[in-house]
Write a structure and sequence with these properties.
Layout: H1 2-64, H2 71-83, E1 87-94, H3 104-116, E2 120-127, H4 131-136, H5 140-145, E3 150-153, H6 157-160, H7 166-183, E4 188-191, H8 202-216, H9 248-262
Helix pairs in contact: 3-9
Length: about 270
């Protein structure tokens, strides 16, 4: 009987030792796992912070390029940038942009896509019409249907020249913008002149009137004429073809002005 009791006690002691050892190992493993998890979280944290910082840095870089844009367009671009949506830019003007295969609009589009990437989309629309015909034919509906956010608008002054009074041209420009805004709320406009020509006479005064109209109406104006030779200098003929439409040199000069406005120098 005594011998049996001793054996039982030995079995119980062995069981306690085995249980205690198992419990200790479990606690130690849990502690190590917790420490490792904590350590891993600390290691991952800077990486996540760095990624967030990079995204913010990219956004800030893109926004810095928009410094010349109308304030409403800048704010809308920022909203779309944060939402991951593309901001829609429309290059709109006369068929002078189509006088060669790669017009100023194509050059500008390529430049903008290179700088802004997929944060923007760029389209072009050209019209063989005067400002008055544009309204009479309700061409503004075609523009509004695209729902652009920012329009670089070259009014049809080259076509109007000698056919439409400048007062009527200016009134038509205002009407066109108003009608497009009704169809595409929130859209902003920037005005830019058509190409310069050699010794433009009355044409130059019409372009000057549009610039004054833009200033008086608080509309940004891109004066790309500064990239061309003086209009009284025969050198400007090397930027134009036989009918005073821009050739390759002319389109590059035109595109340079538009691009430098849409991508502010740092």
């Amino acid at each position: 009987m005594k011998k049996a009791l001793i054996i039982l006690l030995l079995i119980l002691c062995g069981g306690v030792i085995v249980y205690g050892n198992s419990h200790w190992n479990s606690m130690t493993a849990g502690s190590i796992s917790t420490e490792n998890s904590s350590k891993q979280a600390k290691e991952d944290s800077p990486a996540k912070e760095e990624k967030t910082s990079t995204i913010d840095s990219d956004e800030q870089k893109y926004l810095s390029f928009t410094g010349n844009w109308p304030e409403e367009a800048q704010s809308l671009y920022e909203e779309k940038l944060k939402a991951g949506e593309a901001f829609h830019i429309l290059l709109m003007g006369s068929t002078e942009m189509d006088s060669i295969d790669e017009g100023w609009n194509d050059i500008v589009q390529d430049s903008l896509q290179e700088i802004y990437g997929d944060t923007i989309s760029v389209e072009s629309m050209s019209f063989e019409t005067s400002t008055l015909e544009f309204i009479q034919e309700e061409k503004y509906e075609e523009v509004g249907d695209l729902k652009p956010n920012l329009i670089i608008f070259e009014p049809f002054v080259f076509k109007d020249n000698g056919n439409v009074l400048i007062e009527d041209t200016l009134q038509s420009i205002g009407t066109i913008m108003d009608e497009v805004k009704k169809l595409s709320p929130g859209v902003s406009f920037v005005l830019t002149p058509p190409q310069p020509i050699y010794q433009p006479a009355n044409y130059a005064s019409q372009v000057e009137a549009i610039q004054e109209y833009a200033q008086d109406s608080d509309i940004p104006y891109i004066d790309h004429w500064s990239n061309w030779p003086d209009v009284e200098d025969e050198e400007i003929k090397t930027y134009l073809d036989s009918v005073s439409s821009p050739n390759e040199k002319g389109h590059k000069a035109w595109a340079k002005g538009i691009t430098e406005f849409l991508v502010k120098k740092q």
